[in-house]
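Archive record:
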Amino acid sequence: MQEKSKATHKKADGPHHANHQHVYVERDWKEYIGESALIIFSVLLALVLTEFINAQHEKSQTREILRNIKEELVKNLKAEQEQYAYQQAVLKRIDSAMGDPALQHKILANGEFHLKYLAPDGITYRDLDRVAWQIAQSHNIMPKVNIDLVRKLTDIYDQQARIDKLEDKIGDVFLRYESRKEENLRQSLILMRDNYKGWAFDRAPSLIKKYAEAIKDIDKEL
């Protein structure tokens, strides 16, 4: 009876013991190194791809900005050529007025100036845009293009800024009380002529040449 009981107990313990068996696989150190290398490679590859994509996006953005600057320069070149011809005609009228008392009386009548006899289409005939250049500056395009091109563009837009001052400078002449006196009209005309020459007309030939050069340089960058 006792032997039977022992046998039964052993049978009961057999399956319970089998459920707690574990299999341990011994791994070689080379496998660990291989897995680590694979992880490192995957991370580096992701970084390289990200950098490449960012670089391509940056190049594309730079080319787009340069194309916009080129379009702006082409437009400004045409505008400055037209403005140069207009200012040449204005300067001739000013010279004529200084030797023509009858024309002077038309220009200054009853204490009012009638500048239409000198500049019929306004002091500045055309506007020179700078929006594309301002966008380029906001995107810090300078380190991404040829340094000589940056110098030319900076100079061009600085020259434009000086030309844009012409209207204010001539306004300063004719808004003074002394300029309303007939005996001061000749002096006012001289000041008007000098401002045209100093701020705009004398700059035009050089600026027109720089526009053409910068447009060609941008084409090389695209």
Strands lie at 108-109, 112-113. Residues 65-221 form one domain.
